[in-house]
Amino acid sequence: MRVVLAGTFGGQGGIQTHYYWLARALLEAGHEVHIVSLGVLLSSEDRDRVATLSALGKFKVFCPQAGPDNAPEGTLKTAWNLICQLRRIRPQVYVACGTGWNLFLPAILSGACPRRVFHEVMSGDSCGPRDSRHSIRFGFHQVVAQASPVARTFRRVFGWKAEVPVLPAFPEPLEVTATIPTVRRRQITAGLRAGFFSRLVPHKGALWLVRQWPVLADCLAELHIYGSGPEAEPIRDLIRENQWQDRVFCHGRYPDGQAYADLLSTFDLTLLPTLGAEGAPLVLLESMACGVPFVSYGVGGIPDYENPDCFIVDPGSPTTFLDAVKQAALRLTEGTLDQERLQQFYFEKFSYSRLAALWRSFIADDSQSISSIPSHSIKPEAAGSGQGLLSM
Fold first, then answer.
1. Is the Cα torsion angle 83, 85, 91, 95 positive or negative in sign?
2. Which of 142, 177, 388, 391 is a good FRET partner for 84, with 20 to 30 A between their CA atoms?
């Protein structure tokens, strides 16, 4: 089948990671894949990803915003470029991920995409009346969501009447890109090390986490912050001002592949006090892949990651997060958290082979190749269900 994946492919981020591995899974199954990237591919990492995917099968990337010599085109010119390209490709399946009118309207207006799918990887909440996702209800055939809470929120907020299957986004599959350790349940008697892996922006909570060090120091030996963003310097300033340099660290961007797996595996616990409009952060999956328990607020789709060896807490009060860290530390020292069971949970639910099989089955289901939009013909009684291909 010819499949178009529309979104952002250049740069670093969750959508870029997801689309790279989704494209790879589809190419390995023999599909023809075209990526429409709303953004120019400039870095060496971008070019390496394109080269790797091109070697796997029929794969092309189109950047409708790039004119001659990569000069940016205007919004209308970009839309027209995309319409023309879709008419040339004539994909059997068009998958959009992200926001922006050029993800949705050109696919509808081209008349060349008989099956239009939107993948919600954010929280499902609206950014307001001008949110481009409002067009999905009138021009797309299917919506799938990264997690079941996201599916329920999207249906309620955007008035989508049909079922929203749950199809998780691909994390970096460390079992493919690296050799991850086969972990065993272990008791940690002293020196607990905790890590934070994410963007250093206010809603992710890294600066807030460092400010809690006087409390966390009672149960953790070290706290390591990995990531980049506007909070990096304030975090480093806070560490210097309080002379915490021997126990709290801010390292910058974290690696990928084997170096990332090796780094994650050095930690006893990962922490993500995010209060943002999350879909379901991929870093938590990567932590579980290495058998490392996490503590996180239960926002967005994170509740779908619930398991006996991690702590997902009510975002209503900051003390709940700190109490959960203390509880996690206690159970690690007691040996009552099972790292082996946690890693097995990841392999059964979120491994590359598992997600590749789910997405290939979904894409190959050509019964959804329809010419009319079904969302308003579906009975609204199903509106409470967010369950789909993956039952959590």
1. negative
2. 142
Report residue 66's pLDDT band, with 50, 70 and 90 as the boundaries: low
Cβ atoms within 10 Å of 55's Cβ, excluding its own: 9
Say which residues have a Cβ less than 8 Å from residue 24's Cβ, sequence separation at least 6: 52, 53, 56
pTM of the model: 0.87
- Of all residues in the chain, what percent are helix, strand and coil, respectively (each to 5)? 45, 15, 40
The region that residue 14 occupies, defined by phi over 0 for left and psi between -120 and 50 for alpha, beta otherwise, is alpha
Residue 85: what residue type?
Q
Place of tokens 């065993």: 184
What topology is assigned to 2-171+353-378 in CATH?
Rossmann fold (3.40.50)
What's the pLDDT tens digit per position in 198-252?
999 999 999 999 999 999 999 999 999 999 999 999 999 999 999 999 999 999 9
Mean pLDDT (the chain, rounded): 90
Nearest to 17, CA basis, from 42, 49, 48: 49
Q: Do 174-349 and 2-171+353-378 fall under one CATH topology? A: yes
CA–CA distances in Å: residue 166 to residues 150, 301, 388: 9, 10, 5
Angle between helices 14-28 and 352-364 (to 10 degrees): 70
Contact predicate 331/337, CB 8 Å: yes
| Residue pair 9/39 in contact by the 8 Å Cβ criterion | yes
Listed by start position, the domains of the chain span 2-171+353-378, 174-349
Instruction: Determine contact, residues 55/27, Cβ cutoff 8 Å.
Output: no
Amino acid of residue 241: E
Which tens digit of pLDDT belongs to each residue from 275-298?
A: 988 888 899 999 999 999 999 999
* Other Cβ atoms closer than 10 A to 75: 12
Sheet strands side by side (includes 248-252): 248-252, 222-226, 193-197, 269-272, 294-297, 311-313
CATH numeric code, 174-349:
3.40.50.2000
The confidence score (pLDDT) of residue 367 equals 63
Q: pLDDT grade, residue 68 (50/70/90)?
A: low
Give the whole-angstrom CA distance, residue 207 versus residue 234.
Answer: 7
Q: Which two tokens stand for residue 50?
A: 């394109």
